[in-house]
Amino acid sequence: MVGARTDGDDQVVPDGIRDGAAAAAQSTGGIEWRISDEPAVPYEAATADMEARVAAIRDGTAREMVWLLEHPPLYTAGTSARAEDLLEPALFPVHRTGRGGQFTYHGPGQRIAYVMLDLSRPGRDRDVRAFVHNLEEWLIRTLHRFNIRGERREGRVGIWVAQPGGREDKIAAIGVRVRRWVTFHGVALNVEPDLTHYRGIVPCGISRHGVTSLAALGITASIPEVDSALMGAFREVFGGEDGLVEEGTLSRGSGGYGKRTPQRKGRRVRAKSAKGMIARLRHAGKLTFAFFACTLRPSR
Q1: How confident is the model at residue 47 (pLDDT cuts 50, 70, 90)?
Q2: pLDDT tens, position by position, 141-190
Q3: Which residue among 4, 135, 204, 269 is the active-site one?
């Protein structure tokens, strides 16, 4: 894993929020899901909330959590970031993070999932490599629901899509930090971001590969549809029963998230309707934040 760092009780794999009314919660086998509808969740507040949640999970006073959100346009710099890789310092705010890795970008149209799980629990065996492998598998299965073949690449963090002519573009980033065996930060999937925003950095210090998104690949998918696909694929990879938390009351969900139904025109592929599930998730709840790693610059 590139850019990993160990510091005391922290383990870092190269790769964060607070809003109230536009939040949603769902549980999956004891895991709380929170969904933010805010188009720009502030990075600093998210980081603070995430840190607090990780501490509470470790102390046994809060459930594990997956949080789905977006950030305003910004760059983050990991512990290995090089000054020369910040090409346009004034373009967007730059946030220094405790994660491993170098520079990356976050912004609207990119769905971020911050994953806070306790790896010391039975069956997880404190295995960080296995956890990162499962994050990759989660993204690959999510993309499959939209007829996209996502792939791993040896020596390169994230999920990649092979393009005509032998080019490979990155569609999803992964970056995880582990503190006392509780994970934070997570993954970022490019749905429909402005790929020109990558021009201000050399993501991960690598310029020979590109970035892409569902939209750039001809897939029209809404954020609720992507959320539905992420939830379904997460259940397949990490296990657990599905249930909805509505105003503090747990009720069974319908399950089966993320099934693909091709539409008549174009390449629009819709993960199983989010209406019944996502609409029921539009309830207030406290949020939390996190972030992660290398994403590569757009192809010319």
Answers
A1: confident
A2: 999 999 999 999 988 888 999 999 888 999 998 888 899 999 998 999 99
A3: 204
Q: Which of 254, 286, 216, 271 is nearest to 32 (CA)?
A: 286
Dihedral (CA of 65, 145, 276, 194) sign: positive
- Asked if 294 is an active-site residue, the reply is no
pTM for the model stands at 0.76
Look-up of token digits 């599930």: 277
How far is the C-alpha of 115 from the C-alpha of 138, rounded, in Å?
12
Contact 167, 217 (CB under 8 A): no
Residue type, 91: L
Q: How far is CA 161 from CA 107, 135, 151, in A?
A: 20, 16, 6
Return the higher-pLDDT residue of 90 and 261.
90
